[in-house]
Amino acid sequence: MENESIGNVVASGSEFSLIALLSEADIVVKLVLVALLLASVWSWIVIGEKTFVLGGLKKSARAFEEAFWNGRAGEFDLRPGQGGKDPASRVFVSCAREWQDAGRALPTPAEASAIVSRAERAMRAAVDREVGQAGKGLSVLATIGSASPFIGLFGTVWGIMNAFLNIAEQQDTSLGTVAGPIAEALFATGLGLVAAIPAVIFYNKFTSDLTQLADQLDAFSQDVLVRLSRRASDATRD
Fold it and tell me: I need a labelling partner for 111 at 20 to 30 A (CA). Which of 6, 175, 187, 219 fits?
């Protein structure tokens, strides 16, 4: 019987319905809820964009590496199609440019060592640029993940404060006096968690993906440097 009476109250569109609760909420609580809703939408936009971008970067980098090592891996002349959209290609171009800038003349051992050193610095800078570019927007997820629970907590505190103010004004401690503000407070807490939890989960995931991409590019650059060093050493003996 008690469950039926509660169901009848909700079905009749009473003040305890969610829509009526939100429409009659305090202006501060409304602002908190709107801010959390916008933060949740923003975080999902970033999540969708980063899922597509990071997945594409890792796939294209692997494809370029396979094509590069299956082809003329010992040559460091720029060829058509290099320096395109994949990060591994752009990292290689930074090395190949150093080799081209050295000219066609046979280098001395000191010049060969300098070429390899400059190429290493150029490739390290290229890897850092690629990882930094791919990681743009993750600060949004970090901010939303850390700030949303506190924003929701602020709405919770404000709702509880309104509940006590209602008790003081009406001198009544019944459920009808405090139900609205308490429900607003709990809803603000829940929405804060809804915004924060996906942001934290995907921030950690994308951070791991960026680490994997950086390791992949670092390994590729080290392989290229080994072959560049061998090429430069062979050139000094010719």
Answer: 219
Q: Which two tokens stand for residue 58?
A: 């890792």
The pTM is what?
0.75
Q: Give DSSP secondary structure letters for 48-94.
A: HHHHHHHHHHHHHHHHHHHHHHHS-TT--S--TTTTSSSHHHHHHHH
**DSSP output for 178-233:** HHHHHHHHHHHHHHHHHHHHHHHHHHHHHHHHHHHHHHHHHHHHHHHHHHHHHHHH
Q: What is the pLDDT of residues 3-34, one digit of tens each?
A: 343 344 344 444 456 566 666 667 888 888 88
| Residues contacting residue 115 through CB under 8 Å, at least 6 positions apart | 98, 99, 102, 107, 228, 232
